[in-house]
Structures are given as structure tokens and as C-alpha cells.
Amino acid sequence: MDEIQHVEAYSWYFCMLFSLSQTAAQLHERIQSSSMDAKLEALKDLANSSRDVTFAQEFINLDGISLLTQMVESGTDFGDLLSFTLTAFVELMDHGIVSWDTFSVAFIKKIAGYVNKSAMDTAVLQRSLAILESMVLNSQDLYQKVAQEITIGQLIPHLQGTDQDIQTYTIAVINALFLKAPEEKRQVGYTHTPSIPAHTQISPKPINDEMAHQLYVLQVLTFNLLEDRMMTKMDPQDQAQRDIIFELRRIAFDVECEPNNSGSIEKRKSMYTRDYKKLGFINHVNPAVDFTQIPPGMLALDNMLYFARHHQDAYIRIVLENSSREDKHECPFGRSSIELTKMLCEILKVGELPSENCHDFHPMFFTHDRSFEEFFCICIQLLNKTWKEMRATSEDFNKVMQVVREQIMRALTQKPNSLDQLKSRLQNLSYTEILKIRQSERMNQEDFQSRPILELREKIQPEIMELIKQQRLNRLCDGTCFRKISSRRRQDKFWYCRLSPNHKVLHYGDLEESPQGEVPHDSLQDKLPVADIKSVVTGKDCPHMKEKGALKQNKVGLQTGSGYMCVSYMKYCVWTDGLNALLGKEMTSDFTKSDMDTLLSMEMKLRLLDLENIQIPEAPPPIPKEPSNYDFVYDCN
Asked: Which chain positions lie within coiled-coil regions (predicted)?
């Protein structure tokens, strides 16, 4: 029997191969048709079929790749014909059957030409960029040829459009060119102008000035310059770098650098130490030491200075606001800036090699020449705002940073198109909102929908429902005073009802005035055995709403707002639930549903607590003593 099955399996496999071989041969012939319509349909079919590796092998065996490259080199096809030709080519090459080193310079020039054209069909441009990226990544020889045909300057216009796919593919090509470029061409250094210590310039090392400027504009996209600064330690002895810290102090406190002969050295040191402490540096004596840690290195100092110069009012407000608080409640600007810069580099993966598995794309970084610095400025203000909302102390620093990371990540997942949109979305993600989102997500986690959890919920529900039932019956036993409405709509009497402790009799009667406490059973002359109650009706179904003489009948009816008895909605729910519980019927009020959700949620959380290695006391904790006075209670009057 097994042999027969093997024979059938092999027969089916060979039939499939024969079918794919036939299809490949037919498409090979059809894409050479003289009819444009027939050729277009054939190329569409080829693009779809080429995703299958077995078909791709059959088509490549027919020298199909060479045929496609010849069609591209001829330059006779355009529009959809060219688009589907390139799509089929990309799909076939993705299987790794054919080496990229086999393509001619003419083919590379043609593909590069499509990228360099100012107006090109979007689909053709996208496929061309994908081909160039693969060429560069898969062959060092092709990198040299592609680099001769494509420059960064020719790629930049594609980043200025609105098509995110084109922008993404363009960035991929730029990253590929940097990855394959020789080390000396990838290095771009930084120098500081001594006369203006705050200004950071790009100094090409051997890249020309135009190329360096283009790289500066693209610093967030390629992250190469950011990575250099992030991995550059501050030299505490470098006067130009120390001048940047002096500049931060000058802007914050509006002080000029004192001459060396002004006051004693100890007095100046004390003054500097005091100001550096207010600026929130960890090392108050020599803040330069704070920037020796990499990452974030000098990048953090660059961001701080950019914020101080371009958002001066916000910078001064944050520094002075925090320096006026108690030490433990101040949000240290220096330490926060360093940790925030490090966090932003981690979020944006600065310093990491490009990954094909990462599809994060943030169009807001195309809207500003200094987008990373502006991103930092928005986030440092967010950090200060969150610190205040959390009423944090110095011990809560890491906790605040975790919340800020979550706020930033959640805002970025919405893919804001501009930095203003990012700022707006971060404003809506307050600490309170983050807590609400966390709570909602915990309740909606897949774990809470798993079979064991659902079974636990089903097991607990009857217990919770019994608890609610007992609470309702206890309320009936306590009794309730209702305001009685006469036929003339006058509220001149009261009506009291309570359930007997054995749950068998309802005691009720009229009262002249509202009682201050419970009314004893003995003073309620009328009785209604629970066994005589057939059903509980409410609203328009009540007999007293239909019959004038119904008030004389021995029936219980409840109506909110008007009718036989005026009662609050909460009392209405308690009594309808209690009476239904006495009759063994389901309690369906809104209060029952709300109580069930609340109690079930609490019970689930308690039962799912991870109590491993946690010692639970056998006795409950003692009740604290009453306070000496109650002056802290707010007087509503």
C-alpha cells in the first residue's frame, strides 16, 4: 500500500513539474509577442508566477533572465510594460538562483537612468530602487558601478515627495551605499569653531562640500553623523567643549563669564558648582565628566545646546522651575537630557546596521533640517511635564523614563506626518492616559482570552452572582422608605417595606414621616408572604398603570420617578434584583451587571497574582488608630 502511495505522489510531482515547465515555456513565448496588449497580459502573469521558486527555476532555465534584461536595455517598453517587466525581474532574482555579478554595465545604466529621471512612473521607480539596492548589497563589483551612476544628490529629490514607499526604498539605497562604501569614504568628522563653541560643523574627510551638506540634511535618515557624535566622548580638558557647558549656564542664568581676577577662586568654584547643580548635572564640580559615557557621548550635549539656543524660553523655564523645587522633587535637566538622548537613539536604532526585517518609517523626519534635535526638544519638554504629573522624586527617575519611553513609542506608532503632529499626540498621552491604556490592555490581553482564563471566569461567576444576591437580600432585610404618590400626584405620605430575616415575609405599612432609622417589623402591620408573589412587574406592565382599582389589590409594583412609589434608580435596581432573587429568577438590572464586572475583574486579578516567594501573613494587618482630629476632612458647606 505504501509503495502505491509513493508512486502516486511521484506521479503528481512530475505532473506538476511538467505543468510548470509548460507554463514557463508559454510565458517565455508570450512576452515576446508583437501585440502590446498580449505582451502586457503575459508580463502580468509572469510577475505573479515568478513568486513560486519552482516556476522561477523553470523560467530561468529557459534563459528568461537574459530575455528580461534585453527587453529593459532595448528601451522600447515603458509604463505598465516596463513596470511588470521589472517586477518579474525582482521576483525572479529574490530566489537567489542567479548571481547578481552577471549583469552588464548597460543594464545598470538603464536602471540608474530610471532613478535619475525627474519624472518617472512610480511603480518603475520603486522597482528600480529595489534593484539598485540588491545590486549594491550583493556584489562589491556592482557597488562600484552603481556608485558611478548614482549620487546622494540624485536620490534626495525622491525623499522630498509624498510617496512613503519611494522614500523607504530611497533610504534603503542610501543605507546600502554607505554599508558597502570603503571606510575612508564613510567617515565624516566634526569640528567646533573656537569662536562660536556652540556651532557644530561638518568637516568632510574626503567627501566634497556638497556631499557633506547633503549628508547633514539626511543625518536622521542615515544616522551616520548621529552615530559619530553618540560614540564620541567628551574630553574634560578640551576648552572648546567646556565652552559649550559655559554657554548653557550663561543662557539659563543670564550671567557672563567672569574674568579670572573677579573674586577668589574658591568663590567662583562655589558659584559654578551651585549653577551646575541647578542645571541638573550629576557631577556638579566638572559636568564634562557626565558626557564621557558612550552612548550618548557628545550627542547629548549637542541636543542640550540646540534646545537652549532655539527654544530659549522653554529651556530657561524648565531649568528655573526645577531649581526652585526641593532637591528630591526637581527634574534634573542635565541627567534627563543625557538619558533621553540615549533613549531616542535606542528607539530610532541609531548605530545599528539597517535591517530588512525593520519596516519602521517616520515621515516627520523629512519636515525639518534638524529633525533629530527638534525631536529631542519636544521630548525633553514632555519628560518635564510627565515628571510633574507623576509628582516624581529623584528615586522615581527610572520610572519616569519608562513612562516617557512608552509615551514616545505610542506616539510614533501613529506615524505622525510632522513634528507638530507628534507634539500634539504626545500632549494627549498624559500620565493619566497612559495608566488608563495600560489597564485596558491588561484586560484585553490574549492571556485573558485563553481557554484556562475563560474556564476560571466561568467557575468564579456563580460565586460572584451568589455574593451579589446575598447583598441584595440583605438590603431588603434592612428595609427601605419610599415616598408614596397619591392619585392627585401629591407626595404626602411615606411607605416602608422590609424583608423578614428568614426571607419568607415582606412587612410593609404607611408612615406619616420619613424614619430616621430602621422601622421594626412589629410596627409594620401589613404582611405579604413571599410564596404569594407570582411575579415582579415594572414600568408600564404594572397593573396600577392600567387599572384605577389596582391600588386596592394585594400586589407590589415599582416605578421610577412616577407611579405607585417614587424611588431612586439605585433603590429600584436593588429591590427588583432582590425580589427576583426571592423568586429564583435572574437578576437583570444595570447595577447587577456593573457589580458583576467589577467584582469579577478584582477576583480574577487576585487569583492570577504571582505570589511566588511572597509570604502572605496569616492575620490581617492591624487597623490604624484614629487620628487626633478630623480637620483634614473637607467641609462641603
From this structure: none
Distances (CA, A) of 551 to 372, 531, 554, 557, 563: 78, 20, 8, 9, 11
Could you tell me if 560 and 517 lie in one domain?
yes
On whether the CB atoms of residues 506 and 498 are closer than 8 A, the answer is yes
CATH code for the domain of 142: 1.25.10.10
Q: Are strands 188-192 and 200-204 parallel, antiparallel or unpaired?
A: antiparallel
Task: Kindly state whether residues 135 and 239 are assigned to the same domain.
Answer: no
Q: pLDDT-based confidence at 555, cuts 50/70/90?
A: very low
State the DSSP H helix or E strand holding residue 529, giving kind and residue range, or none if neither: strand 526-529
Residues 314 and 237 in one domain: yes
CB-hemisphere CA count at 13 Å for 66?
4
DSSP 139: -
CA–CA distance, 559 with 552 (Å, rounded to integer): 17
182 and 289 together in one domain: no
**Residue 448 belongs to a domain:** no
What was the pLDDT predicted at 402? 93
Mapping DSSP to helix (H, G, I), strand (E, B) and coil, where does residue 493 land? strand
For 92-97, which contacts have Cβ atoms below 8 Å and span 24 or more sequence positions? 92/50, 92/56, 92/59, 92/60, 92/64, 92/65, 92/68, 93/65, 93/131, 93/134, 95/53, 95/56, 95/57, 97/53, 97/56, 97/57, 97/60
Are both 241 and 389 inside the same structural domain? Answer: yes
Q: Which phi and psi (to 5°) does residue 620 adopt?
A: -70, 155
- Of 581, 598, 615, the residue that ends a domain is 598
The number of distinct structural domains making up the chain is 3
pLDDT-derived band at 564, boundaries 50, 70, 90: very low
Please report which confidence band the pLDDT of residue 350 belongs to, taking 50, 70 and 90 as the band edges.
confident
CA dist., res. 166 & res. 159, Å (int): 8
d(CA 68, CA 104): 13
In terms of C-beta density within 10 A (0-12 exposed, 13-18 middle, 19 or more buried), how is residue 587 classed? buried
Structural domain boundaries, residue 586: 458-598
Q: Note the pLDDT tens digit of each residue in 182-203.
A: 766 655 433 332 222 222 322 2
At residue 410, does pLDDT exceed 80?
A: yes
Question: How many angstroms from the chain centroid is the CA of residue 617?
Answer: 39
